[in-house]
Fold this sequence. Notes:
By secondary structure, the chain is α+β, with helices and mostly antiparallel strands. The chain folds into 3 domains: 39-146, no CATH class; 154-250; 258-304. It is 20% helix and 38% strand. It has helices at residues 31-36, 74-90, 146-152, 171-183, 208-222, 292-295; strands at 51-55, 61-63, 70-72, 95-103, 114-125, 128-143, 158-164, 194-197, 200-205, 225-236, 239-250, 258-261, 264-272, 276-281, 287-291, 299-300. The strands form 3 sheets. A 6-stranded mixed beta sheet has the order 3-2-1-6-5-4, with helices on one face. It is elongated, with a radius of gyration of 33 Å. Bound molecules: zinc ion (2 copies). One zinc ion (ZN) binds at residues 55, 57-58, 60, 145, 147-148.
Amino acid sequence: xxxxxxxxxxxxxxCPKCGKKxxxxxxxxxxxxxxxxxxxIDAEKLAIPIRVNVCEICGGYFKGKGAGKExxxxxxxxxxxxxxxxxxxxxxxQECKVRVEGLVGNExxxxxxxxxxxxxxxxxxxGVEIEERGEIEVSLxxxxxxxxxxxTGGYYAGIVQxxxxxxxxxxxxxxMAEEIAYSGLGDADFIPKETxxxxxxxxxxxxxxxxxxVSRQIVKKLGGGFSESRKLYGRKDGRNVYRVSFSVxxxxxxxxxxxxxxxxxxxxxxxxxxxxxxxxxxxxGERTFLKKKETNKARRHxxxx
Length: 305
Ligand SMILES: [Zn+2]
Ligand SMILES: [Zn+2]
């Protein structure tokens, strides 16, 4: 009833529990009685106990069954569980905000298989805003996540092979390529191994997507191009498993560019494929021919200015 209807018509309802007269009933109870009956954080009644997988190697939290694949956090797991519980108990349309305030007690100890989480929950249940603070227990299942399991097992899905056209990549280029590779790794990616070779660098990668992304980024920053080829490696769970080679080719020296060999800088006049480069010593203006063997020690000049 609306107040505008006059005092007589107000409060013609009452709360069956406490007897208080009120016009405002929630589930036929007054606000106070209704609120009293609501429990937002009810550890004992939680339909599904809150569980989270912890990787003993990297310390990461994972959800789902089996080897941890999907990364999560204690906050996320608690928030999802409480929200689900409230919605199941009071209806799916309920507004509900969960704020995890922290872990109770000190940090996780190695032997402990549970943590107590303190949290604050705010929910609008049938139009009544209710706030509650409490603690809840989360049980930890310790194991090894998929990523760590693979690292330990020496797993890799592909190799990014960095070479240069008609020359040998300079160490600086390989260092840059390496940095690009590491900075472009996603959460689940890893580089189990790198092999420095006479003709370049092999970077082992955890997934095909990772290899492709790394190759693309290297080419974007250092020039050149890349191609992919895959080889059947074996079968797992009835599916073919491939390993992919990403052949990254950094660009050859070009006419007009400057190259460094030791402390000398040369300007490239002509590139003779497979033979060497005709060039001019920038300091003396002297024309000279650098054989392939010598140009293998050359670095592109402009990269490192
Ligand atoms: Zn009441
Ligand atoms: Zn791990």
